[in-house]
């Protein structure tokens, strides 16, 4: 084994610094706040390399997630394997989603007050979907989606969220 590879683990771990919150933060190159390093002939995220060096190969179909929500962290006890779906759900639940929704969306014609009124008027049969669409100058399909809670589901930090599907203790 070449000396360069033989000493990689000690060199790799020396590039981290312990933070007050218990995280081991990468002090080297970062991209989008995630640490990066060369490993096995390609550039890899440092938290994935930390997982490989401490626990072995990444399970098939899984990605490595942070329980601490600190992208440069490589502390093995802060890492866990999960699916991309798990990662997206975790991100959205914590309000870190990239896609603005509701009033936070810059091109939204409606406000939460409008959505509430639309649902009330439809529920009490005072207006049908087509009348509501005309009143608010939107497509009737949008009114249908609002009424059936396909969109504008929950008021949460302005991001798409699936909070209503979580157990009450997690909301």
Number of helices: 7
Tally of separate domains: 2
The sequence of SSEs as H and E is HHEEEEEHEEHHHH
Strand order of the largest sheet: 3-4-5
Task: Give a count of the beta strands, DSSP E runs of length 2 or more.
Answer: 7
CATH class category name of the largest domain: Alpha Beta
Secondary-structure content class: alpha+beta
Alpha-carbon Rg, integer: 23 Å
Largest sheet: 3 strands, antiparallel
- Proper CATH architecture of the largest domain: Alpha-Beta Complex
Anisotropy-based shape: elongated
Strand and helix layout:
Elements: H1 3-6, H2 8-14, E1 16-18, E2 24-26, E3 30-31, E4 34-39, E5 42-45, H3 46-55, E6 63-66, E7 79-82, H4 84-93, H5 112-123, H6 129-136, H7 140-147
Antiparallel strand pairs: 1-2, 3-4, 4-5, 6-7
Explain briefly what this protein structure is.
With 171 residues, the chain is of the alpha+beta class. It has 7 helices and 7 strands.
Describe what this molecule looks like in 3D.
With 171 residues, the chain is an alpha+beta fold. The chain has helices at residues 3-6, 8-14, 46-55, 84-93, 112-123, 129-136, 140-147, and strands at residues 16-18, 24-26, 30-31, 34-39, 42-45, 63-66, 79-82. It has two domains: 3-93, Homing Intron 3 (I-Ppo) Encoded Endonuclease, Chain A (Alpha-Beta Complex); 102-156. The strands form three sheets. Strands 3-4-5 form a three-stranded antiparallel beta sheet. Strands 1-2 form a two-stranded antiparallel sheet. The longest helix is centred in the last third of the chain and has 12 residues, at 112-123. It is elongated, with a radius of gyration of 23 Å.
């Amino acid at each position: 084994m070449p000396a360069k590879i033989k000493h990689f683990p000690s060199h790799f771990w020396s590039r981290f610094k312990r933070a007050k919150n218990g995280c081991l933060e990468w002090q080297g190159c970062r991209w989008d706040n995630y640490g990066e390093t060369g490993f096995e002939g390609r550039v890899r995220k440092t938290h994935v390399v930390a997982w490989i060096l401490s626990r072995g190969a990444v399970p098939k179909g899984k990605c490595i997630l942070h329980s601490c929500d600190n992208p440069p962290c490589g502390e093995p006890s802060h890492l866990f394997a999960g699916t991309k779906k798990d990662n997206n759900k975790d991100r959205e639940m914590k309000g870190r989603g990239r896609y603005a929704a509701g009033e936070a969306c810059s091109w939204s014609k409606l406000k939460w007050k409008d959505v509430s009124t639309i649902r009330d008027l439809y529920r009490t049969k005072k207006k049908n979907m087509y009348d509501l669409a005309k009143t608010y100058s939107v497509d009737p399909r949008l009114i249908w989606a609002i009424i059936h809670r396909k969109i504008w589901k929950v008021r949460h930090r302005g991001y798409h969220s699936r909070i209503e599907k979580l157990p009450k203790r997690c909301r």
